[in-house]
Amino acid sequence: MGFVINGKFTAQRITGVQRVASELTRALAERAMRHGNLALVVPRNARPAQSELERRQVSGGIIGRLTGNLWEQIALPLSTRAQTLVSLCNTGPLFKRRHVVMIHDMAIYDTAAAFTRKFRLWYRLVFSLLRRNSLHLLTVSEFSRQRMIHHLHVPASRISVIRPAVDHLEHIVSDDGVLARHALLPQRYCLMVGSLDPRKNLTRCLAAIEQLAYPPDFKFVLAGGSNARVFEAVTGPQSQASRQVIRTGFVTDGELKALYENAMCFVFPSLYEGFGLPPLEAMYCGCPVIASRQASLPEVCGDAALYCDAASIDDIAQKIELMLGSPELRERHRQLGLKRAHAHGWREAADQLSDALAHIEASDAGLASDT
């Protein structure tokens, strides 16, 4: 059949979706693949190579100079006409028939209010066309698979689950300087990951902290691109949280790993996740996790997390207080988390993808012989 991977993600900022594509591609390159001609097709503005997969650039005239969505919708399908394309980041050429697409979640349907009307309409059109035109669909959790069956009306046999991993952290060097820069002491702070996305439930998490009483040297660290307006609305200038919550802003992978490794616990009360890498990353680094019971998180965290009710400020506060107040509970969840996060790696995820592609290849060959 001849598979190629959509390399648009190599020119994008790394978020969770791009992380999955990047690490899957790296793991595919490291494995002895049964698809020996597997290649990565990239735009001209791609980052330097991070895997040993063969790289191909679209060349020739105006087509070769395209980037972004125009590259994906025009240049990419033209350059891969005789091959089956694997797109790992929710989108791909909408009218390509020989296409395997990974859709990470159904948030555009399940949490529609979080998106603008224009964004909702566009992605619903995208998913409708990809559902109709693709050979097969991939996703990252059984939760997302069931939501895709429900919303896209796709038979279960047309969707394969490729479970992400977090062992890329093994190759990241911790940058402990982030602690000194923010005057943080090891095991004297609780870590959260902030985001502009209201589904991350930042408002309730900060309100829960307002209910807690801890010494001035104990901090609550909010890492990432948090929403300043939400923060200020919940934590007034004289409030406890305004004094004890440290906002780091954007952090590098090395800084985030150091924050995981030195935190007393990690809190992730998200309202919706197709998978949710952060709690598994925290577990991999030996950090006890408090997570919500929403969406895919119980599937991802299993028995390794202490669960909270994401809709209850009181319950979030109670679970933080319970975890921080019990060394025995923290050690139990630390050990359970380490076991769970280390049980599955990107190599196993690459094997799952390889098996799915082999099945697609066999099915396609069977259809061809029948005709």
Please render the helix and strand layout as text.
Blueprint (H helix, E strand, L loop, with lengths): L2 E4 L9 H15 L8 E4 L11 E4 L3 H5 L2 H12 L4 E4 L11 E4 L4 H4 L6 H17 L2 E4 L2 H11 L6 E3 L15 H5 L7 E5 L8 H9 L8 E5 L4 H7 L5 H5 E5 L3 H10 L2 E4 L8 H8 L4 E4 L4 H5 L4 E3 L4 H13 L1 H15 L4 H25 L1
Parallel strand pairs: 1-2, 1-4, 2-3, 4-5, 5-6, 6-7, 8-9, 8-11, 9-10, 11-12, 12-13
Helix pairs in contact: 1-16, 8-14, 12-15
Structure at a glance:
45% of the residues lie in helices and 14% in strands.
Describe this entry's structure for a reader.
This protein has 371 residues and is α/β, with parallel strands linked by helices. The chain has 2 domains: 3-165 and 346-370, Glycogen Phosphorylase B (Rossmann fold, 3-Layer(aba) Sandwich), CATH 3.40.50; 168-341, Rossmann fold (3-Layer(aba) Sandwich), CATH 3.40.50.2000. It contains 16 helices and 13 strands. It has helices spanning 16-30, 61-65, 68-79, 107-110, 117-133, 142-152, 177-181, 202-210, 228-234, 240-244, 253-262, 277-284, 297-301, 313-325, 327-341, 346-370, and strands at residues 3-6, 39-42, 54-57, 84-87, 99-102, 136-139, 159-161, 189-193, 219-223, 245-249, 265-268, 289-292, 306-308. Strands 3-2-1-4-5-6-7 form a 7-stranded parallel β-sheet, sandwiched between helices. Strands 10-9-8-11-12-13 form a 6-stranded parallel β-sheet, sandwiched between helices. Helix 12 (277-284) links the parallel strand 11 (265-268) and strand 12 (289-292). Helix 8 crosses helix 14 (313-325) and helix 12 crosses helix 15. The longest helix has 25 residues, at 346-370. The radius of gyration is 22 Å and the shape is globular. It starts with a strand and ends with a helix.
